[in-house]
Amino acid sequence: MLIILLLLNVSSYWVYHNSGGNTLLLLVWLLLGLIASYAWVERTQALTWWQLLGHSLRGSLWLPFSGLLAFNFWRYSWQPPSGLLDQFLNHRWQILPLILVLYLSIISFGVRHYFSKYLPHVTRWLGLLLLLAVSLLIVQWGSDQIGGTFSRYSVRLLWLVWLNGKYLLWLDLLLRLRQQPMTLDYRWFGVGLLLVIILAWPMSGQFFAKTATQPQIIAHRGVNGQGVQNTISALHSTVPEQPSLVEIDLRTTHDQQFIVSHDADTRRLTGQANNIAHTNLAHLQNLTLTENGQHAHYASFADYLQTAQKVKQPLLIELKASDHFQRMAREFVQQYHTKLPASAQFHSASLTLVNLLKQARFTPVGYILPFTQTGLPATHADFYSVDWRTLNPLIVAQARQQGKPLYVWTVDQVWALQAVRHLNTAVVITDQTSQVQQQLHQPAGYNGNLLLLLANF
């Protein structure tokens, strides 16, 4: 029966692939896998179907940690309404804490009388999960030293071990919470697990590219390792490294001028609390910015753009607005529609701003997704800007199907660059332009790719 459960787990891929990511079918498959798992855990109990269904639905609280492959495919197949997702992303710091509190409250309500009894089992489960992940990463690190085809075969095998091992540890936890130790016939279990891995082997090939890409490099906030972000002095230091684009952030001041700044206030870089939207440009330009041991001043976008054009440096412009999106877009169009070079690109975390820029015939315009835990929304954006920490092959495949490139930020570590290169992303946004460009000439191992999938799958 345990082998059937493992087969049910890895067969989620065929359901996902052959149904074209049919969300409803995957949900049914997910519930089937959940009920089958609980039926096996409760096999020594005389349960009715209604009781089994009740246990399974209550146990759905564990789904994010269960290792049920159907859960991941279902999450990334579901395409949330773009407007709803945009509201959630732009208010995530208010919404996510509420969700976390509600989630923890439900769990604590269910185990309030058994906390001291359950805690050792949960701690053991977390420890084994961490031990499994670390062990797989160490083995893959050794395989990367050998390199070549062996390294790719190794990472495919180890990822399948992770998927099934995480699922088994979840089942073991459920049994221990019911004071039922897991018993295995290791001979038959070994044969069964080998069969599962063989059947799932074609799936693993879809998640690890044979060759690493050479993505374009964009300098994040216009810096290259050191310097004060979003300043003209940092631009001068970064241009010699020849990034494809320099990414900057724009905000509007109280007198409706555009200033190059990521933060909505000046506290972090100046030590003084000034809300940029409520302060005039001239006052802001008199402030001294300090970062990485260096000093600079705020630049108006007009000055920054003029400097970039003199040194022939294309820009990726992020429009930031906490409110009044339409007014910001209108002001930007009026002031710069005829002044921007054709090489300029744009992106924003506000879908409203993305649509307004597209309506004004700015192109290309990207939509920034701070994290990707569902499928990509249907938008009019020309590309997506995503955080590398939540990147996974399913998102990459969806973007490719939509014909839209992925701009991945902020990739500074070597192992993160390895992962991104093996996921075939088109563009990398980084604070370390020169280091990343040097690393692109080095062979990329699969350890980073495995680590990213261990975290996201």
Automatic annotation (TrEMBL):
Keywords: Membrane, Transmembrane, Transmembrane helix. The keyword DNA repair does not apply. InterPro entries: GP_PDE_dom, PLC-like_Pdiesterase_TIM-brl. Residues 215-440 form the GP-PDE domain. The keyword Transmembrane helix applies. Gene3D superfamilies: Phosphatidylinositol (PI) phosphodiesterase (3.20.20.190). The chain crosses the membrane at residues 22-41, 53-74, 94-115, 122-141, 153-174, 186-204. One of its GO terms (molecular function) is phosphoric diester hydrolase activity. It comes from the Bacteria. One of its GO terms (biological process) is lipid metabolic process. This is GP-PDE domain-containing protein.
